[in-house]
């Protein structure tokens, strides 16, 4: 690594690489699914880790009823309680403040037969750490913690504050980050440590959850022609949704001057992940419920985008006599991830890009991320210029054998440490 002064060299040398992997094993061992007690247990562990690094820690009970009244609040999983945790290093002494944000909640592990190791145990195989959450995103969060630890261990005094936000509820709507913002934990810039393959991501696509109900008419299976199958009536609606997906993505690609989503054929996907229909195998299904996510492009008005789906479904329904008389119902529910972006010339984008190049020795790659993330809350609600950047590839998330390369974890930790130094400023020796 070139272009590092003595202080920067000391900080990077102080990164505890073995300790990083050992520490990551602790949160990975906690099945911190959304809405479970383990979600808050993981927060307690992070609070302990931040305190051990000498950071000032704010740990508080989130007022869930009050939070639910906020227009930007959304969640899918009910909770009885939630914990917020923020660690702070440095002080306001003329420098800029910076947030590292990461979530502790994870999605279910699924069928363990498809895992090569225990999903709730961090297992190192061929230079990668396997386990649910190792990639998405307890790995990135631990990188941020150990970057701050290295700065403290090297005895460097930051001129601006460095905040580490550990949040719950990202996977089902982002309530943890929203609660953290509303508590007053803001800064001049933020980095969300989501997996970006160590590319600089100043743009995040949006996604809103929807539920489509299709009505049929029940009949005994032996005289099924006397009933109406909600499953069959769903088929033309699904075809119309897929056609809309193609049309929308072609249009949004043409209207994207940044080219940040160029490598994705369908950056704003419409995915139906759950379909439930019928109550009895030998009865015609009288109702079908389909649930999915509706991709929304950067720069789109979410309300106008949602209207396009409503109009598409209603137009398809008018072409079928049964659906015309028994119109399907569409509702929006659960997670609501609006799109967000930060200008490429923003100080945090440029600082992160330069630090990434210094550490990794290659020019930075700028790219938009197609998944929903908490960037949109930091950017759209708090007005904080925000970037997504972290170790690993999102393609390895939400599936069996989730994993992240150890080399990526170490590189991200070094980039985080150097970015904090250069963005916040520090006392010269």
What does this structure look like?
With 429 residues, this protein is α/β, with parallel strands linked by helices. The protein folds into two domains: 6-204 and 339-424, Aminopeptidase (3-Layer(aba) Sandwich), CATH 3.40.630.10; 206-337, 2-Layer Sandwich (Alpha-Beta Plaits). 35% of the residues lie in helices and 21% in strands. The chain has helices at 6-13, 17-28, 37-52, 64-68, 138-153, 175-182, 230-254, 302-318, 321-325, 347-360, 375-381, 406-424, and strands at residues 56-61, 83-89, 98-103, 123-125, 128-130, 162-167, 189-192, 200-204, 206-215, 270-277, 287-296, 329-337, 340-341, 366-369, 386-388, 403-405. The strands form four sheets. It has a six-stranded mixed beta sheet with strand order 1-2-6-3-7-15, with helices on both faces. A four-stranded antiparallel beta sheet has the order 10-11-9-12. Strand 4 (123-125) and strand 5 (128-130) form a beta hairpin. 49% of the residues are buried. The model has no long low-confidence stretch (mean pLDDT 96).
């Amino acid at each position: 690594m070139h272009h590092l002064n003595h202080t920067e060299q000391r900080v990077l040398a102080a990164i505890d690489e073995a300790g990083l992997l050992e520490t990551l094993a602790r949160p990975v061992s906690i099945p911190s699914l959304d809405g479970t007690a383990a979600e808050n247990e993981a927060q307690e562990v992070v609070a302990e880790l931040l305190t051990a690094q000498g950071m000032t820690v704010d740990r508080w009970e989130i007022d869930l009823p009050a939070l639910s009244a906020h227009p930007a609040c959304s969640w899918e999983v009910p909770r009885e309680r939630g914990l917020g945790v923020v660690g702070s290093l440095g002080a306001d002494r003329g420098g800029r403040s910076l947030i590292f944000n990461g979530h502790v909640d994870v999605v279910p592990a699924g069928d363990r037969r498809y895992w090569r190791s225990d999903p709730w145990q961090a297992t190192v195989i061929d230079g990668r750490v396997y386990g649910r959450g190792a990639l998405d995103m307890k790995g990135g969060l631990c990188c941020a913690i150990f970057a701050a630890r290295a700065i403290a261990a090297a005895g460097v005094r930051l001129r601006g504050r460095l905040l580490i936000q550990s949040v719950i509820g990202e996977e089902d709507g982002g309530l943890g980050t929203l609660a953290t913002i509303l508590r007053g934990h803001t800064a001049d810039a933020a980095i969300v440590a989501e997996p970006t393959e160590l590319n600089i991501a100043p743009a995040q696509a949006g996604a809103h959850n929807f539920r489509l109900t299709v009505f049929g008419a029940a009949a005994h299976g032996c005289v099924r022609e006397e009933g109406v199958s909600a499953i069959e009536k769903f088929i033309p609606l699904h075809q119309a949704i897929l056609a809309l997906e193609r049309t929308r993505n072609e249009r949004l690609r043409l209207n994207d001057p940044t080219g940040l989503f160029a490598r994705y054929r369908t950056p704003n996907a419409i995915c139906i992940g759950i379909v439930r229909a019928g109550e009895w195998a030998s009865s015609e299904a009288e109702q079908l419920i389909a649930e999915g996510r509706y991709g929304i492009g950067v720069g789109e008005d979410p309300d106008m985008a949602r209207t396009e789906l409503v109009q598409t479904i209603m137009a398809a329904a008018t072409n079928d006599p049964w659906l015309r008389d028994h119109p399907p119902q569409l509702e929006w529910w659960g997670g609501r991830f609006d799109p967000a972006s930060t200008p490429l010339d923003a100080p945090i984008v440029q600082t992160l890009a330069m630090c990434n190049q210094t550490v990794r020795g290659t020019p930075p790659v700028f790219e938009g991320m197609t998944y929903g993330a908490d960037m949109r809350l930091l950017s759209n609600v708090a007005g904080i210029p925000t970037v997504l950047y972290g170790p690993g590839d999102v393609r390895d998330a939400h599936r069996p054998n989730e994993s992240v390369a150890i080399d990526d974890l170490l590189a991200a930790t070094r980039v985080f440490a150097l970015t904090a130094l250069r963005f916040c400023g520090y006392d010269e020796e």
